[in-house]
């Protein structure tokens, strides 16, 4: 039976899926380390570890991998909402302009990201940030079931902080687990 023709994007997704299966098998065998390896590591193990480092997550601005981000702590997010003039989240009845007015921010062409998190004392808060590209990077990772969190935004990226969460949000893997939404005990 001939294989179906895949688009270039579908082909790359299939390669990524297979690479993830290889690294998962190495982890199940107990030798996956993400390290570059030493003399005791075989060339296959070295290659799989390198593959795993590349698959660890999709890189995005604010992922903490750059030298200038190393000292900024990550933000544990319950979930995120992306507001854009051309596309509002499913289930949100208001327009982009109405949502901006409700949140107390000026509409802007790039849109806004709403980061639902917790304050230091556990109160649910929403940070309205300009880091839409960071949020899209998070969503790329979460869609692949990869745990990734952004570093704390610089003060100029935080426009407002509101008590409570804004929605409808896309839950992070951490948020879903913490809130008991994973379907696992």
Topology:
Elements: H1 8-29, H2 43-55, E1 79-83, H3 96-103, E2 112-118, E3 124-129, H4 132-143, E4 158-163, E5 170-171, H5 173-178
Antiparallel strand pairs: 1-2, 1-5, 2-3, 3-4
Helix pairs in contact: 1-2
Question: What features would you describe in this structure?
Answer:
It contains five helices and five strands. With 185 residues, the protein is of the alpha+beta class. It folds into two domains: 8-55, no CATH class; 67-178, no CATH class. Strand 2 (112-118) and strand 3 form a beta hairpin. It has a five-stranded antiparallel beta sheet with strand order 4-3-2-1-5, with helices on both faces. The protein has helices at 8-29, 43-55, 96-103, 132-143, 173-178; strands spanning 79-83, 112-118, 124-129, 158-163, 170-171.
Task: Please tag this protein with its features.
5 strands, 185 residues, 33% helix, globular, single chain, 5 helices, alpha+beta, five-stranded antiparallel β-sheet
Helix content: 25-40%
Strand proportion, as a percent range, falls in 5-15%
The overall strand count is 5
Main sheet record: 5 strands, antiparallel
Please list the strands of the largest sheet in the order they lie side by side: 4-3-2-1-5
Give the averaged pLDDT, no decimals: 87
Poorly predicted tracts of residues: none
Task: Give me the secondary-structure category.
Answer: alpha+beta
The 3D shape can be described as globular
Order of helices and strands: HHEHEEHEEH
Q: How many angstroms separate the termini?
A: 41 Å
Treating each run of at least 4 consecutive H or I residues as one helix, how many helices?
5
Radius of gyration, CA atoms, in whole angstroms: 20 Å
Compute the number of structural domains.
2
